[in-house]
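Here's what a typical entry looks like (Arginine--tRNA ligase):
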Amino acid sequence: MNVFTHFRAVVDEQLQELVDAGSLPQGLVMTGIAVEPPRDASHGDMATNAALVLAKAARMKPRDIADMLAPRLEQNEYVTAVDVAGPGFINMRLSVSFWQSQVAAILREGKAYGDSTVGAGIPVNVEYVSANPTGPMHVGHVRGAVFGDALANLLSKAGHKVTKEYYINDAGSQIDTLARSAHLRYREAFGEDIGEIPEGLYPGDYLVPLGHALKEKYGEKYLNKDESEWLLLFKEEASNAMMDMIRDDLKLLGVEHDEFFSERTLHESNRIADAVDVLRQQGHIYEGVLEPPKGKLPDDWEPREQTLFRATDFGDDVDRALQKSSGDYTYFGADIAYHYDKYVRGYKTMIDVWGADHGGYVKRMQSAVKALASDADLDVKLCQLVRLFRNGEPFKMSKRAGNFITLREVVEEVGSDVTRFIMLTRKNDAPLDFDFAKVMEQSKDNPVFYVQYAHARVCSVLAKAVEAFPNLDTSDGSLLNADLSLLSHPSEVTMIQVCAQWPRMVESAAEAHEPHRIAFFLYDLASEFHTFWNKGNDDQSLRFIIEGDEATTKARLALIRSVALVIASGLEVLGVTPLKEMR
């Protein structure tokens, strides 16, 4: 139950009654009305802007509307006080019994608490990682992988039908280079001294096993053959092997995609030309000459007629070329076809997760999607770099991959859960520092430890409660029957109020495409829990287990179990395992 949605319905109902009574005019549009926590908690539990939203259309002063609405809201069984503030905001304070009832609601729903229908089953395609299949995943891919995966989980929890997709760039010149690098390792597998890896080929020793696998599979068949006899085959073999390695690396991080889409299939099936024809039929394509680039001209630049997309008609800075002088389509041409394919597959809502170095590509891609279909929407989320540190000093790990730090090296040192949580402790477009020492630190300053510790502490308390009260049933079904009216201490009520914000947090974070909000929310909830725990150290009456008082103990167990369920639900969105004990 989203308590804010519940009271939004209460506000709507009272406004409709004012309309029916003739106090407000007919035909008012109420879509902009919100019920949300007030900025200052001392003002109440909830606030609504209804009077301000309706004032202009109703041709009335906001405060006059608020003064009519406030007494009606105060009649609600769960509302204990209402006041009109400022230009017409209405603040409401709810009864403690209402908040107490939310503990039972959470226990009933379990980890499904917070599941929303706001997404209405609308299909969303989230494309992320999509690293070139030319080697292992490096640390630069980690953040985008975690962000994309958590965002997809979040949208699913909010009620969307989500597809996690990986776009395999297996058609460019980098795949030719990969095949040549693999052939070199194939020759090496027969004992040939290949010497220094020639410049321009991939030097990483991750290609050594591939060379041996090719030897095992094909023997000497392609050992001294012309490139034309093996290049096509080795491209396929090498890119497949790299994708297998990438899948394994991603699995280590807990990332598994639903779909893998090959760029090569676009070229082979003529779908790039088909997508360009769609734009041409709508008048978005012309033959022309681009303006020269600003600044110093590249040596190979020359004015020439090209097939161009009118990107400037859709917000881009310049029109964009779709074909090279060779007649081959540009990368942009293939990307247009790929996004058109997504649209044809039923995805009007698309989200691409890219590295920050692709920032200059965003406008053209969004322009193309707008041109292809007016009802399609592309949101591009850019992930900034991750800087690695150890004890505050910039850190470089081994370079077994050739010239970069691998995802596997990071995850194998600190674990998937720690990696994933830390990657979501900053907004995606802000730089993030990853200190190998700090992320393993057991302190309040380490958010992943702090949140996990809260969950583990709840599990520990539940176990100890059974030792104190051997006949106590601590199952969720039994805790539902606890006397929740005993939860009246301000810290207990605050903890419930934070838990009750979880469904709203899911919806707002999903709408903004910002999964990092979940990590922040969990830290705040863990903080409330640990604060109450510490109060029990100073005041025995505030401990979770009260000797000789089974009723209060059971009520508090119900409360902290609801905290654990919300934490577990949030960690599930982030792809992090809730721990039952800390070691």
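The chain has a mean pLDDT of 94.

More examples are in the samples folder.
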